[in-house]
Design brief:
The protein is α/β, with parallel strands linked by helices and about 375 residues long. Helices cover about 30% and strands about 25% of the residues. Strands 6-5-4-1-15-16 form a six-stranded mixed sheet. The two termini are about 40 Å apart.
Protein backbone atom coordinates (compact mmCIF):
# COMPACT_ATOMS: atom_id res chain seq x y z
CA UNK A 1 0.00 0.00 0.00
CA UNK A 2 1.69 3.15 -1.21
CA UNK A 3 0.33 6.44 0.12
CA UNK A 4 1.37 10.00 -0.69
CA UNK A 5 0.99 12.22 2.36
CA UNK A 6 0.29 15.96 1.94
CA UNK A 7 -1.00 18.62 4.31
CA UNK A 8 -1.32 22.35 4.94
CA UNK A 9 -1.75 23.49 1.35
CA UNK A 10 -3.17 26.80 2.69
CA UNK A 11 -4.63 27.60 -0.73
CA UNK A 12 -5.35 31.30 -1.07
CA UNK A 13 -2.70 32.32 1.44
CA UNK A 14 -0.95 35.67 1.31
CA UNK A 15 2.56 36.00 2.72
CA UNK A 16 3.58 39.56 3.61
CA UNK A 17 0.71 40.70 1.38
CA UNK A 18 2.00 38.69 -1.61
CA UNK A 19 -0.54 36.26 -3.07
CA UNK A 20 0.83 32.71 -3.20
CA UNK A 21 -1.88 31.41 -5.55
CA UNK A 22 0.32 31.14 -8.67
CA UNK A 23 3.06 29.44 -6.64
CA UNK A 24 0.47 27.04 -5.22
CA UNK A 25 -0.85 26.22 -8.67
CA UNK A 26 2.74 25.50 -9.78
CA UNK A 27 3.53 23.24 -6.81
CA UNK A 28 0.29 21.28 -7.21
CA UNK A 29 1.32 20.53 -10.79
CA UNK A 30 4.68 19.32 -9.46
CA UNK A 31 2.82 17.06 -7.04
CA UNK A 32 0.75 15.64 -9.90
CA UNK A 33 4.00 14.72 -11.68
CA UNK A 34 5.11 12.90 -8.53
CA UNK A 35 1.78 11.07 -8.44
CA UNK A 36 2.36 9.97 -12.05
CA UNK A 37 5.83 8.69 -11.17
CA UNK A 38 4.92 7.00 -7.88
CA UNK A 39 1.51 5.57 -8.86
CA UNK A 40 0.23 5.55 -5.25
CA UNK A 41 -2.83 3.71 -3.98
CA UNK A 42 -4.00 6.90 -2.34
CA UNK A 43 -3.23 10.54 -1.59
CA UNK A 44 -3.77 11.70 2.00
CA UNK A 45 -4.40 15.42 2.57
CA UNK A 46 -4.20 16.06 6.31
CA UNK A 47 -6.05 19.33 6.69
CA UNK A 48 -5.66 23.08 6.17
CA UNK A 49 -6.56 22.75 2.53
CA UNK A 50 -7.40 26.46 2.60
CA UNK A 51 -5.90 29.33 4.54
CA UNK A 52 -9.29 30.66 5.65
CA UNK A 53 -12.62 29.13 6.56
CA UNK A 54 -14.15 31.26 3.77
CA UNK A 55 -11.54 30.87 1.03
CA UNK A 56 -11.45 33.05 -2.10
CA UNK A 57 -13.12 31.64 -5.20
CA UNK A 58 -9.75 31.26 -6.97
CA UNK A 59 -8.49 28.99 -4.19
CA UNK A 60 -11.61 26.81 -4.35
CA UNK A 61 -11.26 26.54 -8.13
CA UNK A 62 -7.61 25.54 -7.76
CA UNK A 63 -8.40 22.74 -5.31
CA UNK A 64 -11.32 21.60 -7.47
CA UNK A 65 -8.99 21.33 -10.45
CA UNK A 66 -6.43 19.38 -8.37
CA UNK A 67 -9.07 16.87 -7.24
CA UNK A 68 -10.42 16.46 -10.77
CA UNK A 69 -6.95 15.74 -12.12
CA UNK A 70 -6.34 13.15 -9.40
CA UNK A 71 -9.73 11.52 -10.02
CA UNK A 72 -9.00 11.28 -13.76
CA UNK A 73 -5.83 9.38 -12.90
CA UNK A 74 -7.85 6.92 -10.87
CA UNK A 75 -6.08 7.97 -7.68
CA UNK A 76 -8.09 7.73 -4.48
CA UNK A 77 -7.90 10.85 -2.32
CA UNK A 78 -8.60 11.23 1.42
CA UNK A 79 -9.17 14.79 2.67
CA UNK A 80 -9.83 16.11 6.16
CA UNK A 81 -10.41 19.64 7.41
CA UNK A 82 -7.81 21.45 9.52
CA UNK A 83 -8.14 24.30 11.98
CA UNK A 84 -8.04 26.83 9.11
CA UNK A 85 -10.84 25.09 7.18
CA UNK A 86 -14.59 25.16 7.56
CA UNK A 87 -15.44 21.45 8.08
CA UNK A 88 -18.95 22.02 6.73
CA UNK A 89 -17.75 23.69 3.53
CA UNK A 90 -14.97 21.18 2.93
CA UNK A 91 -17.33 18.22 3.43
CA UNK A 92 -19.89 19.51 0.92
CA UNK A 93 -20.63 16.94 -1.79
CA UNK A 94 -18.52 14.31 -0.06
CA UNK A 95 -21.00 11.46 -0.47
CA UNK A 96 -21.30 12.16 -4.18
CA UNK A 97 -17.55 12.53 -4.71
CA UNK A 98 -16.80 9.25 -2.93
CA UNK A 99 -18.05 7.50 -6.06
CA UNK A 100 -15.12 9.09 -7.93
CA UNK A 101 -12.62 8.03 -5.30
CA UNK A 102 -12.50 11.44 -3.60
CA UNK A 103 -13.23 10.88 0.09
CA UNK A 104 -13.97 14.00 2.15
CA UNK A 105 -14.21 13.62 5.92
CA UNK A 106 -17.65 14.64 7.17
CA UNK A 107 -18.16 17.02 10.07
CA UNK A 108 -17.17 15.19 13.24
CA UNK A 109 -20.16 13.71 15.12
CA UNK A 110 -18.37 10.89 16.93
CA UNK A 111 -18.72 8.29 14.19
CA UNK A 112 -15.57 7.78 12.12
CA UNK A 113 -16.00 4.97 9.63
CA UNK A 114 -12.91 3.83 7.72
CA UNK A 115 -12.47 3.59 3.98
CA UNK A 116 -10.99 0.17 3.22
CA UNK A 117 -8.43 -0.22 0.44
CA UNK A 118 -7.20 -3.69 -0.50
CA UNK A 119 -3.87 -4.69 -1.99
CA UNK A 120 -1.75 -7.84 -2.22
CA UNK A 121 -1.27 -7.81 1.56
CA UNK A 122 -4.98 -7.58 2.34
CA UNK A 123 -7.17 -4.74 3.58
CA UNK A 124 -5.91 -1.41 4.92
CA UNK A 125 -8.37 0.78 6.78
CA UNK A 126 -8.01 4.53 6.41
CA UNK A 127 -9.63 6.59 9.17
CA UNK A 128 -10.19 10.31 8.61
CA UNK A 129 -10.40 12.43 11.77
CA UNK A 130 -10.67 16.17 11.08
CA UNK A 131 -9.31 18.77 13.48
CA UNK A 132 -11.27 18.52 16.71
CA UNK A 133 -11.27 20.38 20.01
CA UNK A 134 -12.25 18.84 23.35
CA UNK A 135 -15.64 20.56 23.05
CA UNK A 136 -16.36 18.71 19.78
CA UNK A 137 -15.67 15.32 21.34
CA UNK A 138 -17.54 16.16 24.56
CA UNK A 139 -20.60 16.99 22.45
CA UNK A 140 -20.42 13.55 20.82
CA UNK A 141 -19.69 11.65 24.06
CA UNK A 142 -21.15 13.66 26.98
CA UNK A 143 -20.76 10.70 29.32
CA UNK A 144 -16.95 10.72 28.96
CA UNK A 145 -14.54 12.76 31.10
CA UNK A 146 -12.68 14.99 28.64
CA UNK A 147 -10.54 17.81 30.00
CA UNK A 148 -7.69 18.03 27.45
CA UNK A 149 -6.85 17.56 23.80
CA UNK A 150 -5.17 14.26 24.67
CA UNK A 151 -8.39 13.08 26.34
CA UNK A 152 -10.38 14.17 23.30
CA UNK A 153 -8.19 12.26 20.84
CA UNK A 154 -8.05 9.20 23.10
CA UNK A 155 -11.87 9.06 23.34
CA UNK A 156 -12.37 9.76 19.62
CA UNK A 157 -9.99 6.93 18.71
CA UNK A 158 -11.48 4.56 21.32
CA UNK A 159 -14.82 4.81 19.50
CA UNK A 160 -13.37 3.94 16.09
CA UNK A 161 -14.01 0.40 14.80
CA UNK A 162 -10.33 -0.59 14.82
CA UNK A 163 -9.23 -4.16 14.04
CA UNK A 164 -5.72 -4.53 15.55
CA UNK A 165 -5.01 -7.58 13.36
CA UNK A 166 -5.19 -5.49 10.18
CA UNK A 167 -3.42 -2.39 8.91
CA UNK A 168 -4.87 0.90 10.14
CA UNK A 169 -3.98 4.39 8.91
CA UNK A 170 -5.12 7.63 10.52
CA UNK A 171 -5.29 11.01 8.80
CA UNK A 172 -5.64 13.79 11.37
CA UNK A 173 -4.72 17.40 12.13
CA UNK A 174 -3.42 18.10 15.64
CA UNK A 175 -0.38 19.34 17.53
CA UNK A 176 1.57 16.40 18.94
CA UNK A 177 3.65 17.23 22.00
CA UNK A 178 7.25 17.95 21.07
CA UNK A 179 6.69 18.99 17.45
CA UNK A 180 8.86 21.89 16.21
CA UNK A 181 6.66 24.79 15.20
CA UNK A 182 7.06 27.69 12.78
CA UNK A 183 5.91 31.31 12.95
CA UNK A 184 3.24 30.71 10.29
CA UNK A 185 1.25 28.29 12.46
CA UNK A 186 -1.49 29.13 14.93
CA UNK A 187 -0.21 28.65 18.47
CA UNK A 188 -2.55 28.15 21.42
CA UNK A 189 -1.74 30.04 24.58
CA UNK A 190 -0.03 27.88 27.18
CA UNK A 191 0.36 24.87 24.87
CA UNK A 192 -3.13 23.63 25.74
CA UNK A 193 -3.58 22.04 22.31
CA UNK A 194 -0.87 19.41 22.94
CA UNK A 195 -1.71 15.78 22.17
CA UNK A 196 0.35 12.90 23.57
CA UNK A 197 1.68 10.68 20.77
CA UNK A 198 0.72 7.61 22.81
CA UNK A 199 -2.94 8.01 21.80
CA UNK A 200 -1.97 6.90 18.27
CA UNK A 201 -0.49 3.54 19.29
CA UNK A 202 -3.15 1.49 17.48
CA UNK A 203 -2.22 2.82 14.02
CA UNK A 204 0.38 1.56 11.57
CA UNK A 205 0.81 5.04 10.09
CA UNK A 206 -0.47 8.44 11.25
CA UNK A 207 -0.53 11.13 8.58
CA UNK A 208 -0.47 14.40 10.48
CA UNK A 209 -1.18 17.95 9.44
CA UNK A 210 -0.87 21.28 11.31
CA UNK A 211 2.92 21.66 11.67
CA UNK A 212 4.73 23.24 8.71
CA UNK A 213 8.14 21.62 9.08
CA UNK A 214 8.44 17.94 8.00
CA UNK A 215 9.29 15.75 11.01
CA UNK A 216 8.71 12.38 12.64
CA UNK A 217 7.14 12.19 16.10
CA UNK A 218 7.63 8.51 17.07
CA UNK A 219 9.99 6.94 14.61
CA UNK A 220 8.49 7.25 11.14
CA UNK A 221 5.09 5.85 12.15
CA UNK A 222 3.72 9.25 13.24
CA UNK A 223 4.71 11.96 10.79
CA UNK A 224 4.15 15.55 9.78
CA UNK A 225 4.84 15.92 6.06
CA UNK A 226 4.99 19.73 6.29
CA UNK A 227 3.78 22.34 3.85
CA UNK A 228 4.58 22.07 0.13
CA UNK A 229 5.74 25.72 0.15
CA UNK A 230 7.51 28.02 2.61
CA UNK A 231 4.98 30.33 4.26
CA UNK A 232 7.19 32.39 6.57
CA UNK A 233 10.84 33.35 6.88
CA UNK A 234 11.07 31.06 9.91
CA UNK A 235 10.81 28.28 7.30
CA UNK A 236 13.62 29.59 5.12
CA UNK A 237 15.85 26.58 5.88
CA UNK A 238 13.12 23.97 5.44
CA UNK A 239 13.49 21.42 2.65
CA UNK A 240 9.94 21.01 1.38
CA UNK A 241 8.88 17.60 0.12
CA UNK A 242 6.14 15.06 -0.41
CA UNK A 243 6.08 12.09 1.99
CA UNK A 244 5.63 8.60 0.55
CA UNK A 245 4.58 5.91 3.05
CA UNK A 246 4.57 2.26 2.00
CA UNK A 247 2.88 -0.43 4.09
CA UNK A 248 3.36 -4.09 3.21
CA UNK A 249 2.37 -6.80 5.66
CA UNK A 250 1.18 -5.76 9.14
CA UNK A 251 4.08 -4.08 10.94
CA UNK A 252 6.07 -3.29 7.78
CA UNK A 253 6.42 0.42 7.03
CA UNK A 254 8.90 2.45 5.00
CA UNK A 255 8.76 6.22 4.72
CA UNK A 256 10.71 8.39 2.30
CA UNK A 257 10.43 11.86 0.82
CA UNK A 258 10.42 13.32 -2.67
CA UNK A 259 11.76 16.91 -2.72
CA UNK A 260 9.72 19.78 -4.12
CA UNK A 261 11.26 22.71 -6.03
CA UNK A 262 9.16 25.90 -5.83
CA UNK A 263 8.58 28.42 -8.56
CA UNK A 264 10.14 31.04 -6.28
CA UNK A 265 12.17 30.17 -3.20
CA UNK A 266 11.72 32.14 0.03
CA UNK A 267 15.07 33.20 1.47
CA UNK A 268 17.01 35.83 3.38
CA UNK A 269 19.92 37.96 2.17
CA UNK A 270 21.96 40.58 4.01
CA UNK A 271 24.59 43.22 3.31
CA UNK A 272 24.98 46.93 2.74
CA UNK A 273 22.81 48.68 0.18
CA UNK A 274 25.85 49.09 -2.06
CA UNK A 275 26.71 45.38 -1.83
CA UNK A 276 23.17 44.23 -2.65
CA UNK A 277 22.86 46.58 -5.63
CA UNK A 278 26.26 45.76 -7.10
CA UNK A 279 25.56 43.82 -10.30
CA UNK A 280 28.48 41.46 -9.77
CA UNK A 281 26.91 40.33 -6.47
CA UNK A 282 23.39 39.56 -7.72
CA UNK A 283 23.98 38.62 -11.36
CA UNK A 284 23.24 34.92 -11.87
CA UNK A 285 21.15 34.62 -8.70
CA UNK A 286 17.39 34.14 -8.51
CA UNK A 287 16.52 37.80 -7.98
CA UNK A 288 12.79 37.03 -8.32
CA UNK A 289 12.73 34.83 -5.18
CA UNK A 290 10.68 35.98 -2.20
CA UNK A 291 13.21 37.82 -0.07
CA UNK A 292 13.79 39.16 3.38
CA UNK A 293 16.54 41.75 2.95
CA UNK A 294 18.59 42.80 5.97
CA UNK A 295 20.61 45.96 5.37
CA UNK A 296 23.70 46.48 7.51
CA UNK A 297 24.19 50.16 6.66
CA UNK A 298 24.73 52.31 9.79
CA UNK A 299 22.02 54.74 8.62
CA UNK A 300 18.66 54.13 6.94
CA UNK A 301 18.78 54.34 3.15
CA UNK A 302 16.08 56.66 1.70
CA UNK A 303 13.41 54.77 -0.29
CA UNK A 304 15.44 51.57 0.10
CA UNK A 305 12.43 49.26 -0.31
CA UNK A 306 11.29 50.77 -3.61
CA UNK A 307 14.82 51.07 -4.97
CA UNK A 308 15.73 47.49 -4.07
CA UNK A 309 12.54 46.18 -5.69
CA UNK A 310 13.88 47.36 -9.05
CA UNK A 311 16.41 44.52 -8.73
CA UNK A 312 14.48 42.22 -6.39
CA UNK A 313 10.81 42.52 -7.49
CA UNK A 314 9.53 40.05 -4.86
CA UNK A 315 11.22 41.69 -1.89
CA UNK A 316 8.74 40.95 0.90
CA UNK A 317 10.41 42.37 3.97
CA UNK A 318 13.17 44.90 4.70
CA UNK A 319 14.99 45.24 8.02
CA UNK A 320 18.18 46.83 9.30
CA UNK A 321 20.86 45.22 11.44
CA UNK A 322 23.12 47.93 12.87
CA UNK A 323 24.03 49.54 16.19
CA UNK A 324 20.73 51.45 16.38
CA UNK A 325 18.50 48.44 15.69
CA UNK A 326 20.46 46.19 18.05
CA UNK A 327 19.96 48.72 20.84
CA UNK A 328 16.25 48.88 20.00
CA UNK A 329 16.11 45.09 19.96
CA UNK A 330 17.40 45.03 23.53
CA UNK A 331 14.59 47.37 24.59
CA UNK A 332 12.01 45.33 22.67
CA UNK A 333 13.29 42.18 24.34
CA UNK A 334 12.60 43.71 27.75
CA UNK A 335 9.08 44.60 26.62
CA UNK A 336 8.50 41.08 25.27
CA UNK A 337 9.46 39.68 28.66
CA UNK A 338 6.39 41.47 30.03
CA UNK A 339 4.10 39.89 27.40
CA UNK A 340 3.38 36.73 29.30
CA UNK A 341 0.67 34.16 28.73
CA UNK A 342 -2.27 33.72 31.05
CA UNK A 343 -0.81 30.53 32.50
CA UNK A 344 2.56 32.23 33.09
CA UNK A 345 0.90 35.09 34.99
CA UNK A 346 -1.19 32.64 37.02
CA UNK A 347 1.83 30.44 37.81
CA UNK A 348 3.77 33.45 39.10
CA UNK A 349 0.77 34.58 41.16
CA UNK A 350 0.42 31.09 42.67
CA UNK A 351 4.11 30.94 43.57
CA UNK A 352 4.01 34.40 45.14
CA UNK A 353 0.95 33.46 47.23
CA UNK A 354 2.12 29.99 48.28
CA UNK A 355 5.89 30.28 48.40
CA UNK A 356 6.36 27.35 46.00
CA UNK A 357 5.79 26.67 42.30
CA UNK A 358 2.79 24.76 41.00
CA UNK A 359 3.13 21.00 40.70
CA UNK A 360 2.91 19.36 37.27
CA UNK A 361 -0.59 18.14 38.14
CA UNK A 362 -1.70 21.63 39.19
CA UNK A 363 -0.14 23.16 36.07
CA UNK A 364 -1.90 20.65 33.79
CA UNK A 365 -5.22 21.30 35.58
CA UNK A 366 -4.80 25.07 35.21
CA UNK A 367 -3.89 24.82 31.52
CA UNK A 368 -6.96 22.68 30.83
CA UNK A 369 -9.14 25.08 32.81
CA UNK A 370 -7.90 28.09 30.81
CA UNK A 371 -8.53 26.12 27.60
CA UNK A 372 -12.11 25.31 28.59
CA UNK A 373 -12.82 28.91 29.60
CA UNK A 374 -11.52 30.12 26.21
CA UNK A 375 -13.63 27.53 24.35
CA UNK A 376 -16.75 28.55 26.27
CA UNK A 377 -16.12 32.20 25.39
CA UNK A 378 -15.87 31.49 21.65
Amino acid sequence: MKLIHLSDLHLGKRVNEFSMLEDQEYILKCILKIVDEEQPDGVLIAGDVYDKSSPPAEAVALFDDFLVRLARRGTRVFVISGNHDSPERLAFGGRLMAGSGIHLAPVYTGAVEPVTVTDAYGPAHIFMLPFVKPANVRAAFPEEEISSYTDALRIAIAHMPLDPRERNVLVTHQFVTGAQRSESEDISVGGTDNVDAAVFSAFDYVALGHIHGPQNMAGSRIRYCGTPLKYSFSEKNHVKSVTVAELKEKGSLTVRTVPLSPRHDLREIRGTYQELTLKANYEGTATDDYLHVILTDPQDVPDALARLRVIYPNLMKLDYDNQRTRAQSTLDGAERAERKTEIQWFSEFYEAQNGQPMSEEQLAFSMNLFSRIKEAAQ
